[in-house]
Amino acid sequence: TELISVWCFVVRTVGVKCEQLTQPASVTVQPGQRLTITCQVSYFLSSYWTHWIRQPAPGKGLEWIAYISSGGGSTSYSESVKGRFLISRDDNRAQLNLQMNSLKTEDSAVYYCARESQ
Fold first, then answer.
1. Which parts of the sequence belong to the Ig-like domain (predicted)?
2. Of 35, 56, 50, nearest in space to 99 by CA
3. HEC string of 14-52?
4. For the chain, which has fewer Cβ within 10 Å, the N-terminal or C-terminal residue?
């Protein structure tokens, strides 16, 4: 039986002031299943574009997978996840979500949420 491992961490892009973003440690699911991961932030999501990126394996490059604009009205996805993943946010809870549907073994990765600096 194949398993998909998702490790979640946090980064913030270029800037001086650090922000706190909190994510769960790791989750393992079966291929074809659905999983939602959440990034808890300490800033106003409505003030920054925020992204999800992933790293398939140690030493491998980062892959950008999705962003949501500061206004929330604009989203974009990489071809590898388009139609399967959905980025959303809850401004009241200060949470960024990534709903991952129809997971594949190639989705196994360390997932990072990252915000752009002003």
1. 19-118
2. 35
3. CCCCCCCEECCCEEEECCCCCEEEEEEECCCHHHCCEEE
4. N
Contact criterion met (CB below 8 Å) for 80 and 70: no
As a whole number, the mean pLDDT across the chain is: 79
Tokens found for residue 27: 């989750």
CATH topology assigned to domain 4-115: Immunoglobulin-like (2.60.40)
Token pair 């299943």 is found at 33
What type of residue is 33? Q
* CA torsion angle 89 108 53 70 (round to 10): -10
Report DSSP state, residue 107: G
pTM: predicted TM-score of the whole model, two decimal places: 0.78
Burial bucket for residue 106 (CB in 10 Å: 0-12, 13-18, 19+): exposed
Structure tokens at 26: 């790791």
